[in-house]
Every structure is written in structure tokens, then in C-alpha cells.
């Protein structure tokens, strides 16, 4: 039921990526590992000295307790200092890698084709950008360095055990099958379990986000019950997914605990028997038992982090998956020659097999005003978005000055064609930052000119900090009309020669509308305009009118020509004209 629109990377990809990431800074990595190795070696001294002490007592050859204590203390202090620098080095490395990961992911998300974002819904993306990034950062910050430290410590401790007495390493082997089998069992189930957990969480976020953003509709249509049920279902699915992974852990953890205790007991008992046989000394048994005990801590951390690495791996699979979304823009190098906008044989489908545009041919001359009219659902907005280069056509082409719109880099595209809708977003930040989005290099004078052009300079000047006033959520509140003017000023700065207008002002407070229409008229001045017209007088004033019906342009010509032709436009016009005058 969960709609998995955004792909998830497979295990091989995650492994390859993790390997590349780990080895990216070989120097930093070897320094960190080297320091951890030295710390582990320092930690081996105490059991060894203790072994000697026991041996001395047993042999009755007199022991230097003070010397041994000082030795142990010295090595412990050295270990503490080494650990401090080792942790510092590995944390620094982790942060560095994490910062790059985040940057890369943000780049990927911003590069997602709009059509994919629309289809995928925001829940999945929000979960990936929040929960998955969080869990991955825990992995990179803690799990990866800790795992490497634990590995180094284990290897060195096992090495020391073998040096002390190869025979005494044998009892520890008893733990291997227990740990191996139970961990294999766990890992085989964990990845899918955690992926399911994340997906269930995404569904829940999706549902809640939808309920909140559609709160009015929910209330108006009395959908509360249904939304409650959906949330309940989501929660219970999320709960089931969490319970599954919890179940895995409740079996795996105790088994592992058992795997730790057995080797210590075995080393002591079997070592004792070896001693009676005279195969090993009491010092060796003591030291070996302590080493085996010292193995528990890194081993435990290793296994615990394997669990965490699973969670991180699942998150990484979801984050890397974002990169697999095929780009709907092709990298091209063409430079438009002229300003003529042309659609040629354009077809487009939101869902495969269901074209909503069926072969549109249209040429818009520079400076022309073209109005698009037609029944709701005919495809006007879709065509508008294609003409503005937001989507690429399924077949056919949309070109400006002979260059395909989808081949233009987005930044260039916006300097040629822009779509104007009622949706405009004021980002949290200063007003200046909001305007500079359109053209980062614009100077003070250009910003001011743009605001003056849309008749907004007056209120901007009156803001507490002028252009540097923080607006958007949590900032200075500005009215909807002001926000729209700011959006129009952005357009002036981007300075596209062609504008596609989709119901630009129809939802505005009527008192503000006149004012805004003046601002809009100033922006339209001297540009090519394609207006999706919902009021016919817009069409009347246009140079040409295109009637869109059922995904096709059924009529195209000037107002007078179309009225004279007596087609569907003429019928529309006479009914509108007849009833409203
Ligand atoms: P108009 O602007 O003329 O009202 P649209 O271009 O909005 O028409 O819609 C044309 C067809 O495409 C309609 O059948 C509509 O249901 C469908 N459609 C529009 N937007 C989407 C979308 N984001 N996803 C799926 N179908 C869509």
C-alpha cells in the first residue's frame, strides 16, 4: 500500500558507497586507527602485569606490589590520553564525512525533477531528509568510528592472547558458533525490518502532513472519521514494524550475552586443567582470562554497532535512492537564438498510458499576447507548465529560439520563460535574500528598481529594517498581496522575455486585486505573454486566442476571427457576453 515512488538503493550500492566514503581520507583514517591501536596496546599491559604478580605470589618469589601498581597506573594513564586523541581524530573525520554527505544529499533533493516530487508526495521526502539523515549521521558520527575502534581492539587483543599462550585461545572458540549463527540470523532479517519501519514511518508522516495541510477540506467534507482511521492504520502498521525489529533484538541480544560469558568461564576452567597438566603457567592463565574478559567490551560494541549500522545502511539506501531518480532535464549546450517559443507535436502524460495532451503545435511570436481558454481539465495548465519548461514533453518538443527548454540549465531557463501562478513562496530570510533568488548578482539599485516597478517600494521602505527585514515563517508578517508583489519583483529581476500566466490574480482579495493588476501589468510590459484565461475579457484583449479542448488546440486565431468562425469560442463568447452585459 505504501507508494514507493522514490527508489531505494540496493545493498551492493550501499556497500560500494560506504567503502568509498570510508577510504576517502586515508591519512586521517590511518592516524585515527593508529592512535586507537596504540591505546589498545596500552590496555594490554595491566593483565600482563597482573599475571606476573599472581605467578610471583604462587611461586613465593616475592612480589613488588608497588612497582606493579605504578606500572598499571602508568599504562592506564597513557591509555586514557591515547584514547582522548584517538576519539578526537575519529570524530573529526566522522564530522567531515557527514558534512559532505549532507551537502550531497541536499544537492540531490534539490535536483529532483518536480514531477517526481509531486508524485512521490512530501512524506517520503520529509522522512528521508529528517529521520534518515539523522539516523545516518548517528551512524557516521558514532557507529562507523566505534566499529573500527572495536575491530582494532579485538584484533590486537586476540593477537596478544595468541602470544601469551596459543593453547589458551582455544576455549574462546566456543563462542564463535554462538555469536556467528545468532548474528547471521539477525542480520538476515534486520535490513528489511528496518526498511519497513522507515517506510511505515514515512506513510504516517505523509498522512499527518496531508491532514494538516488539508485541514479545511477535512472539516468541510466531514472527513475526520476517515482521517482518524487512516492515522490509526498507519500507527498500527508502524507499531507492527517496530515490534518486529524489537522481537529480533530480544532474541539476538540474550544469545550474544551468553556468547560472552562462555569463553571466560571456559578459559578459566580449561586453562586450570592445562595448568594442572603443566602445559601453561599460572601467569599465562591469569593474563589470558583477563584478555578474554577484555574482549567482551569491544566485541559487544562491535555487535551493538552492527545493529546500528543496519539502521544506518537502511537509511543510506533510502538516501542514495534519491540519486537514482532519472533526471527529466538533459544536459545540453545550446544557446537560444531568438525568443520565439514553439511547441511541436507535444504529448504529455502524468501517468503512463494516459496522455492529457494529444499533439500540440503552437508558435508564439516575440511580443505576442496569447490567451488560452477552454473547459476545466482540458489541459491548459499542463500545456502552460510545458511551455514554461517545468516538465519535458513525452514526445515532441518545446523550444525557445530553437533550443529545447529541457536542455537549458534551470538558471538559464528562468531568464527566458517563467511561469506565474498564485503559488509563490516567501522563504524565511530577509526580503533581500528572497528577491536575490531570482538573480543573485543583482545590486541594490536593481532590487529597488524591481520593487518600484511593481509598486512595492513604498511598503518595503516602511518595514522596520527595509530590505533586510526578516520575512517568512516567524519573521515580519507581510500580507498575501505584498507577498505576491515580492514574487512579481522576483520576476522583474529574473527578466524573462516570456511569461506564462496561470490564474495569476484570480484568488486575490478584490480590494488588492486592482493594485496587483497594475503591478502585474508593469511586469508584463514588453514581454511575450501566454495567459491561461479564466475571464474572457483577457481573451478579448489578446492578440490571439487558443481554445484548448480535450488536450488539443481546437481553434486558434484572433478574437474577431474566432467569433466570425462561429466555433466553440464564438459560443462561449456569446453566452458570456449575453449574460454579463
Ligand atoms: P486545465 O488547466 O485546462 O483545467 P489541467 O492541465 O489542469 O487542465 O489538467 C489536464 C488533465 O490532466 C486533467 O485530466 C487533470 O486531471 C490531469 N492532471 C493535471 N495535473 C495533474 C497531476 N499533477 N497529476 C495527474 N494528473 C493531472
How would you describe this structure to a colleague?
The protein is an alpha/beta fold and 581 residues long. The protein folds into 2 domains: 314 residues, ABC transporter transmembrane region fold, CATH 1.20.1560.10; 236 residues, Rossmann fold (3-Layer(aba) Sandwich). 65% of the residues lie in helices and 11% in strands. The protein is built from 21 helices and 12 strands. It has a 6-stranded mixed beta sheet with strand order 6-9-10-3-11-12. Strand 11 and strand 12 form a beta hairpin. Helix 3 runs antiparallel to helix 4, helix 8 packs parallel to helix 11 and helix 15 crosses helix 17. It is elongated and about 120 Å long.
Task: Write a brief caption for the model.
The chain has 581 residues and is an alpha/beta fold.
List the keywords.
single chain; alpha/beta; about 575 residues; 21 helices; four-stranded antiparallel sheet; Rossmann fold; about 65% helix; elongated
CATH architecture label of the largest domain: Up-down Bundle
Low confidence ranges = none
Rounded mean pLDDT is 86
Q: How many domains is the backbone divided into?
A: 2
- Estimated share of beta-strand residues: 5-15%
Can you identify the CATH class of the largest domain? Mainly Alpha
Membrane topology: Multi-pass membrane protein
Protein name: ABC-type multidrug transport system, ATPase and permease component
Subcellular location: Cell membrane
Organism: Streptosporangium subroseum
